[in-house]
Amino acid sequence: MNPWTILNRPQVWSAVGVAAVLFVSAVTRADDVVEDGPAQPKNRIDQIVFARLQQLGIAPARNCSDGVFVRRVYLDLIGTLPTAKEASRFLNDSSPDKRARLIEELLVREEFADYWAMKWCDLLRVKAEFPVNLWPNGVQAYHRWIRDAIHTNMPYDRFVRALLTSNGSNFRDPPVNFYRAARDGDPIACAQAVALTFMAVRPESLSREQLGGMAAFFTKIGIKGTGEWKESIVFFDPNKVCTNPAVGPQPVFPDGTPAKIPPGTDPRVVFADWLVRPDNPWFTRAIANRVWYWLFGRGIVHEPDDFRPENPPSNPELLDYLQQELVNGRFDLRHLYRLIANSQTYQLSPVATTDSPQATANFAYYPMRRLEAEVLIDAICMITGTTEEYSSQVPEPFTWVPRTVRSIQLADGSISSPFLEMFGRPPRDTGLESERSNRLTPEQRLHLLNSSHIRRKIEQSPKLATLYSLRDPQEIAVRAYLTVLSRYPSADEQQRVREYLQNGPARGRDAVIDIVWALFNSSEFLYRH
Amino acid sequence: MKTNPNTNLTRREVMSTTLLAVGGWWLVGPESRAASSVPNAGRAKAVIQIWMWGGPCHIDTFDPKPKAGYDYCGPLDKDIPTNVDGIRINENLPILAKNADKYAIIRTMTHGINAHETASYVVQTGRKPGDGIVYPCVGAVVSYFKGYRGGYKGLIPPYVVLTRPQGRFSEAGFLGNRYKPFATGGDPSSRTRFVVEGIVAEGITEERQKARRDLMLGLDRLRAARPSDPAIQELDQADHQAYELILGDAGKVFDLNQEKDELRDRYGRTKFGQACLVARRLVERGVPYVTINYEGWDTHKQHFTAMKRMLPELDKGFGTLLEDLHERGLLDTTIVWWSGEFGRTPRVQWEPPWNGGRNHFGRVFCAVVAGGGFKGGRVVGETDEKGEQIVRRPAYPWELIRTMYVLLGIDPSATLPHPQGRTVYVSPQPNEGYEGGELVTELL
Description:
Helix content of chain B: 25-40%
Distance between the termini of chain B: 25 Å
CATH topology of the largest domain in chain B: Alkaline Phosphatase, subunit A
Mean pLDDT of chain B: 90
Distance between the termini of chain A: 32 Å
Strand order of the largest sheet of chain A: 1-3-2
Largest sheet of chain A: 3 strands, antiparallel
Largest sheet of chain B: 8 strands, mixed
Number of helices of chain B: 13
Oligomer: heterodimer
Order of helices and strands of chain B: HHEHEEHEHHEEHHHHHEHEEEEEEEHEE
Radius of gyration of chain A: 25 Å
């Protein structure tokens, strides 16, 4: 029998208390809740990373425990916590390939598309108004297109080509919004957005000639209105004349090669042909490094959108390998996610063996990061069974968001909540990764510890009502840990919970609430680890 | 700018008056300016911003037009003298009338924008939208220069909003999350306690707060496993600061029960009045920037009913704040800045569906400033007899904000850190194409 079926029925708790106790003591054998044995290289990534670490004389961290892994891989791949049921099913699975199977399951989840669409919308600045005007209709269409592309696993080269070469209506041909987000097709702004987003090169790292030469590819973008309110058409306008002196007279690729534009050809297409080639390192390195950064919170080139000669990769061989895998896999980004998530390097414990900055730069452990604003509030809402209200500062027709919509699903950067603003959701103004702030501030800490917003969610949670009605310390500990931290409590943790329930200042329901509150406010809950 | 047909000033005369008034900054260029030579430059240590959210009507407050007739004044057609000869304000502001020597009225603020969001952005940032940069508001800039980087050491965050934040259009802009305000939430006029979000938790005793904290720390295995991890250190530090506010003395600044009943009464037992009192307490403890978001001024309908209720409330809170700051010797170093995003249409909309309302009016509005080196007892600018046109001396948000920066010792031509490395100045520079002059010199 699946042990969860017991756990899941509250009335069984008291009836088969003895069985439950036996079951609990059987699964909480390891007192060490974070780590599980020494690190073992599993794939080519590990060979490269561990060789580099050996060279530096740094010992990698240990293998992470299953409890740590299940939480980590859910948060990293789908931006969503495992339910208590999902966590216990994984923890009680004894097959040796269960981590690999879980990764496969997650890569095809709906939330995978939600979460990565959110990340791409940050980079592509998907926001209705101010400082760019995509307009509410355009934003909804653009977000849907991006999410669909991720959901159907559109190869990355096709995805970028569509963004760069599309023509049509901002409402009906969504990728054209790429140019609208770049200050309405201004050639310099387009070149800067392309360089930052797809080549990971910041505007200040481009020479004047490079920028001017690139901008010349984007001088024939026409934008015109239609009869529909706020609709506009992006089209190839061969007769358009650019007078901006910063734009070069002829299109030149960033590597210095002048481009030949056949008559009647949209120069954007010529640029896209150059950019998305498998042998174009500007293109492949940027995305390979970005995917790595997304899973580790640190790039092989760091910051991940700051490629320049003075900022070399910490492990060039690793970046080369990922780039090659990307090309071999025909720009299938899920292949990269899979490869990385299955590596021992990704599955290391967060406990570093040394404080050396080299250990951080060379991935000797899994670095802890505070959950992103959206992921954090979604996690709190999911566990407590509560919802959020969103609103927009600009008057727009899509401000009303159904309560079932999670924060990671919000299409429009203009639609937000006080929590998301406080916890560093990016304003989507620049397309820089650093716009998102995952630093924990004292104000955020106060909010989590003590605000009426979070207290209400915990104390009045419909989903936790059963847990709050329990009185047996062991049952309480197991349920609370599985629900909030996605793992079983150790013997020591059970003892502390019992101690508080029996001797603490709060009684009954209040005391259980305090246990749940304490777990919500632990580093294990707040940080990817 | 349009001159009023009823005055004798020509357009040329108006222009020359304006240039004289502002010292001809645009003629001399930035390099010859010396902000430090301005009298009282650097005197101000803090700002209390009274944000008249929604846009208060200028002719119903600090620019009364009693002769304009019923179609303009409605029932608010009486003004009263103040303690400064020649300055008259609406009769519903008697405490403020007794203190006109402490503040200056700018009657010709203008930007011409009639939409709340954009107008708020312009008035709070001193910048126009449109160049692809989202600028920080004054509070974020002051907290950048005078917060933790500038030697502020308090546990209360350096930029506090009482009580509800206005959000994106008036916040940290490209300066980012660290410079966003701390919004208190709660109601300072509550009979029992001002429940400041995160600092005060109703129904949880101090004993239980402590026990909860100990439980949390005891259960946090990961924190114990690697205390030197930067993430853990950040968490420890945030915990320390948070608990100083929750359990320590620092949070007591919000406890209005420590104030005498008579003083609380003088401020008015309203949300706004008590927020003014909290603002004084914050500034007293060194907080450099406090915004009071005073809601309810967007009176499209039932305007006069609302004014009868709100003007006395405004008078008690704002007036007592000035008196209290003055009595404690704090006004000298504290700027009090009163303004909304725009004024309201002087001509009343008597027709349905408004039935006696006023619409948005970006062409003319009032700002009031006091303290921190601003000279009181003055009026800047003049509007026509109906409050619809500027007759003399248009004043722009960026001029006023630049003047505040100078008094705060913040160099308007210093740069702010922009995430993409763009060169962005604290305040618009002469070559950026902004109207008006450098400073509102009449106030110095």
